[in-house]
Amino acid sequence: MKNKVILIASDQFGKGEPELGAAVLENFLVQLKQAEQKPVAIFCMNRGVYTLTDHSLSHLHLKELEEQGVPVFGCKTCVEHYGLVDELKAGKIAGLNHFMELAGQHEVFTIS
C-alpha cells in the first residue's frame, strides 16, 4: 500500500451481505495494520464515515493505524450529513479539497 491513499466509501467491503462485508473490511484493516508498508493516508466518505464511529468495529483498527502514523480523515460533508460529528472515535474531519490534494499526488485504492 506504499504511496497509496485508501478511500473507504462504504461501511463494508464489497456488495452483498452487510455483515460479511463489514467483517471483510475489518479483516482488511487488520492486515493493513500488520503490513510493513502503510498507505500515505486513509480518507472515509459516504457511508465509509461510519467506520470512524462506534457503529463499526473498524474504528478500533483505524485508530491503531493512526497511532502507527497513518493519517485518517472523514469527509466533512458526509460526517455532517449523517450527524456523526460528535461520534468520531478515529480520524479527523477534512474537506474534499484535502482528498483532492492527496488524490492528485498519490494513487487511490477505493473500498466500496
Automatic annotation (TrEMBL):
It comes from the Bacteria. This is DsrE family protein. The lineage of its organism: Bacteria, Bacillati, Bacillota, Bacilli, Bacillales. Pfam families: DsrE (PF02635). SUPFAM superfamilies: DsrEFH-like.
